[in-house]
Amino acid sequence: MSGQARWFMPFIVLILLTVGCSYEEQSASGEMPEMIKVQLMIPDKVSVKEDVALQIKLTQGEQPVNDADHVQFQVWNEQDEPEAPSFDQGMMSADELESRGATKAVSIGDGIYEVNYTFQEPGVYVVQAHVTSGAMHTMPRTKVTVE
Question: Exposed site from 24, 27, 32, 66, fewest CB < 10 Å?
């Protein structure tokens, strides 16, 4: 081993140990934020041409989330499910969802977001919420029978 290599190797080992230890300290102290909990508050059955409040309640820990980045509702007859985006497209933006018929929800306080909707025809409909808050995104769905 040459003289330079003998001096250089301990220096490299010292750098690797320093970087490894500092990375470990950061990951141990960095806490993951608690996941947002989503509660759909949508009736199971409604009447045709009845104005219905589609609501969702967002909480993180015990606290209501009143500042979500995007909350939208998408409604379709279960026989006409919209085509999902391709894997290459990834997640749709809020604007793309609105172009596909999603409706932006309004915060009414206490972590509750709401959209008023009127079902025009009888059938079974899927109501899907799209919620983005920070780096978290969730898309819960439920079914509504319209008579």
Answer: 32
Question: Which helix (H) or strand (E) element contains residue 63?
Answer: strand 63-64
pLDDT, tens digit, 9 for 90 and up, residues 45-103? 999 999 999 999 999 989 999 999 999 999 999 988 776 655 555 566 666 666 667 89
Would you say the C-alpha torsion 95, 100, 101, 106 has a positive or negative sign?
negative
- Nearest alpha carbon to residue 78 among 10, 12, 141, 132: 141
Which backbone phi and psi does 44 adopt, to 5 degrees? -75, -35
Neighbouring residues of 116: CB distance < 8 A, sequence distance ≥ 6: 51, 52, 53, 54
d(CA 18, CA 10): 12
For residue 140, the SS3 value is: coil
How far is C-alpha 18 from the geometric centre of its chain's CA atoms?
Answer: 37
Single-letter amino acid, residue 3: G
Q: Which residue has the tokens 């949508």?
A: 42
- Residue-wise pLDDT for 1-23, tens only, equals 555 555 556 555 555 555 555 44
The CA distance from 93 to 79, in Å, is 24
